[in-house]
Amino acid sequence: MLGEGIAKGLAETARNFFGSYVSKERLTTVQFPEERLPQPEAARDFPFLVYDGPDWQAGLRCVGCQICEKECPPKCIYIEKSKDKKPDALGKPQFYPAVFNIDISVCMSCQICVEVCPFEAIKMDTEFELSTDDRFGGLLWDKSQLAKSNEHYNKIHPTEAAEVDARLAEEKAKAEAKAKAAVQAAAQAAAKAAEAKASPAPPSAPPSGSAPSDSAPSGSAAPSAPATSSSSSTVAKND
Ligand code: SF4
Ligand code: SF4
User: Fold this and answer.
1) Is the dihedral of CA 49, 52, 53, 59 positive or negative?
2) Residue 116 pLDDT > 70, yes or no?
3) From the DSSP assignment, how many helices (H) and strands (E) are in the chain?
């Protein structure tokens, strides 16, 4: 029917307008900034770098692999990978981003950087009050501004963060079990080597070339028997 959509829209508006006087559920606006609506869990604005533990520099999950930098459509990520390695939050030596900048004024919140990161190191924040009068420097964030704790990630995206934590814990347990097995195997191999070194060597067999002198040298022909052929007796008879 012509105008059905308009009529439905107006009806909804009227329901909300009059209903808001009797039901808070119909009140679709709040007195911002004094009042704030809770952010939905799927909300996203701009990326941040996740760190574990109390020290953001030591705990950054990012290893500076630069995949997100390559994949970012508007190219607003800039990374310089470190030349050296340092222990991450788990004590494993890792490269780290010596420089990690994001130009938030260019970022289009597409989340591709999050999707491509193999280390769960970059996630989308829900912070949106970022207005500044410094058009350039004010929105070019370095890693100290981008770093936010895993607790923050769990607070804004609890379901997703719980899944990531469970996966990382599983991977960590597997890696620890593998490392433990490798240490045990190395210890067993060392113990076997020490045992072999400590036990006396068995007497060795004489070499094949040092046989007693009365035995025939190997490969030499046996002495030939005296000639008793019929030809020699024939010669004797003839004499
Ligand atoms: S955030 Fe992820 S993808 Fe980007 S450099 Fe760090 S580890 Fe690599
Ligand atoms: S959200 Fe998109 S545009 Fe923003 S930094 Fe990540 S990949 Fe780039």
Assistant:
1) negative
2) yes
3) 8, 8
| The pLDDT value given to residue 1 | 75
Neighbours of 146 (CB within 10 A): 24
* Lowest-confidence region among 27-41, 142-156, 157-171: 27-41
- For the chain, which domains are there? 51-181 (3.30.70.3270)
Residue with CA nearest ligand 2 atom 6: 113
Burial 154-178 (b: 16+ CB within 10 A, else e): bebbeebbeebeeebeeeeeeeeee
**Residue in the structure block whose two tokens are 């029917």:** 1
The DSSP letter of residue 125 is -
Q: Is the dihedral of CA 192, 194, 195, 201 positive or negative?
A: positive
Quickly tell me which residue has 């808001």 as its tokens.
20
| Alpha helices for 108-217 (secondary structure H) | 112-116, 143-146, 150-156, 158-198
How many whole angstroms from 74 Cα to the centroid of ligand 2?
A: 7
Q: Are strands 86-87 and 122-124 parallel, antiparallel or unpaired?
A: unpaired
Nearest-CA residue for ligand 1 atom 3 is 117
State if residue 156 touches ligand 2 by the CB under 6 angstroms criterion: no
Query: What is the reported pTM?
Result: 0.72
